[in-house]
User: What shape does this take?
Amino acid sequence: MIFDGRALAIEVLARTKAHAGKLPHSPRIVAYVAEDSTPVTRSYLSIKKKSAEAAGCMFERTKDVDSFHDVDAVIVQLPLPFGFDMQGILDSIPVEKDADVLSGAARKNFERGDTDALLPPVVGAICEILKFGHVEIAGKKAVIVGRGFLVGAPVAAWLTQQGADVTVLTSKDDLSEALHAADIVVSGAGVPHLIQPEMIKKGVVLIDAGTSESGGAVVGDADPTCADKCTLFTPVPGGVGPLAVAKLFENVVTLVERAMDI
Assistant: This one.
């Protein structure tokens, strides 16, 4: 089954808008954008703006970290250009406004499995996808391709919390043996068509959360023909990405509700 992330994202945004409509004011989000020179960055910013509006939120951009305290939630568009203090900027986001779960404090809460910790949006999206596909996690062999801050690391932590037997590899490792044994594969390496059909077993759940450019187009880590061997496959574009953005704004509204004790 090829998963339609756009369709489920619409549902998440609709229920988020319903919650936002009960608040005294529309949640105001500021996005710190240091640079938007790449097609992938511009695409994500456009999607986030439209999704914010669909979620009943106000979305604006800034290059001023001092403006972080004047809004309901803060997001930082990654990656930041060379020379920027990425962790310093992320750690300047107050935990109660960190919808992306990027600051050190918010990430520690998540990694500890605190009951009130928000799920990073990509993790939230993958949680929704696995629920949609009625995929059992506990006891399954899961392989994560990529150790990145946005996908690999948080997804590995969450799947481990859910009781999966997790192996984390990189695109430079020999993937074949581990992928052949995996029940669940999540890839965030950002290497075009790194995963080929012959590398995975029949019936695997393959969640492609990697994005990169190839021939002027945005593509994923998995060759689209992998879908024929999967019980559940997320395409790029149209899979994890739209749903992760929707979960980001769901987090925003959750933070505002908590701040107002609703």
Notes: The chain has a mean pLDDT of 94. The domain at 121-241 is CATH 3.40.50.720 (Rossmann fold). Strands lie at 28-32, 58-62, 73-76, 141-145, 165-169, 184-187, 204-208, 212-214, 217-219, 230-234. The chain has eight helices and ten strands.
